[in-house]
Specification:
With about 350 residues, the chain is mostly helical. It contains eleven helices and no strands. GO terms for molecular function: G protein-coupled receptor activity.
């Protein structure tokens, strides 16, 4: 934050009034951080942690979804749980002990902040992986069985996680330099600019464009599939052919229904990600010629970006429940089982 930036030459930026007879920029940002990251952010994170945990249970019990797809969805849900938990540990100390608190507390600086950044990048690329997988399955249904195997899925998951670590090297370097050689202000400024660039381009913009491309291609393939099914003859000639074609049609319908549901997940994620990506790209332009007002505005918007990322990790569960009846039934069974288990435990304690 450009604390020393001034607009009137004598008063530091953070000590200037946000408006006449109003709070200083420092207090303005503190109030925004409290409202966005604590009042709104804590409930979002708590709900997201619980619902993502339920998603893991549902995908583990689901036997109709292809194994490769379930594996990606389970990993995505695990990442959502960890990311939301780390978001609480990162942003709440910032709210209650200052914005530099994350760099002053050893555990936060050494582990939680870098890991939270890595998981954010990994989560974005996992959604891209889901989009690519569904695009291949719906567009090249025969070839995808050979090209997209469990081994390939494992390799891609490891590769994307390694790529996420590589992309987040600037923020890791910044934390290390700030801890070991805090006097290297020029180096820290250069590393911070590198972090802003990789954050805007490789964490947000490229995944966003990839998701938009996959969404368009999947929607087009689904439309072609619907058009093809309407042209199919309603009457069959041979009884054996009827059985085989009914089985094939059932598998095809299940695959299309799964693709439609995951398309909704991708589109929801993309819609939340769009303003975040635009803001990240805009920050690159603002940082070239920073002014006090622009930097304060950018900092305030960064809190909204953080909240949007948390909402993105929370929204998937609700898409699953609203679209798929089987997941609603699974959720109902799990909740009824837990209720019955607790009731039985209370009865045993009473006796």
């Amino acid at each position: 934050m450009a604390t020393n930036t001034t607009d009137n030459g004598s008063i530091p930026c953070m000590m200037q009034e946000a408006w006449p007879e109003g709070p200083t920029y420092w207090d303005f940002l503190r109030y925004n951080r409290l409202i966005v990251l604590s009042v709104l952010g804590i409930p979002v994170c708590v709900v997201g942690i619980v619902t993502s945990g339920l998603s893991i249970c549902m995908f583990s019990q689901d036997k109709t979804t292809p194994r490769t797809t379930r594996k990606i969805l389970i990993v995505l849900s695990v990442v959502d749980v960890l990311y939301l938990l780390l978001s609480l540990l990162i942003f709440q100390p910032m709210t209650f002990c200052g914005p530099e608190c994350a760099l002053q507390l050893p555990l936060l600086a050494a582990i939680i902040v870098p890991l939270g950044n890595i998981l954010e990048c990994f989560r974005n690329w996992l959604n891209v992986l889901i989009g690519v997988e569904r695009f291949l399955v719906i567009s090249f249904s025969v070839r995808s069985k050979v090209l997209w195997t469990g081994r390939i899925t494992n390799v891609l998951l490891v590769a994307f996680f390694g790529f996420s670590i590589l992309v987040r090297l600037p923020v890791i370097s910044f934390i290390v330099i700030n801890k070991v050689r805090p006097e290297l202000s020029d180096v820290k400024a250069w590393v911070a600019q590198m972090h802003s660039f990789t954050d805007a381009i490789l964490v947000f913009l490229v995944p966003l464009l990839s998701l938009m491309f996959c969404s368009v291609q999947i929607a087009r393939a689904l439309r072609q599939s619907d058009h093809f099914r309407r042209k199919q003859p309603e009457q069959k000639i041979f009884a054996q052919t009827e059985v085989n074609e009914e089985s094939s049609a059932c598998n095809n319908a299940r695959r299309i229904k799964l693709t439609r549901g995951l398309l909704m997940v991708i589109v929801t994620f993309t819609l939340f990600m769009l303003p975040l990506s635009l803001l990240q790209v805009l920050s690159l332009l603002i940082l070239r010629q920073p002014t006090c007002v622009c930097m304060v505005t950018l900092q305030a918007c960064s809190y909204v970006v953080a909240l949007g990322c948390q909402i993105n990790s929370t929204a998937n569960f609700f898409v699953y429940i609203l679209y798929w009846g089987k997941y609603r039934r699974m959720l109902k069974r799990m909740l009824c089982y837990q209720y019955a288990k607790q009731t039985l435990s209370l009865k045993r304690r009473a006796y």
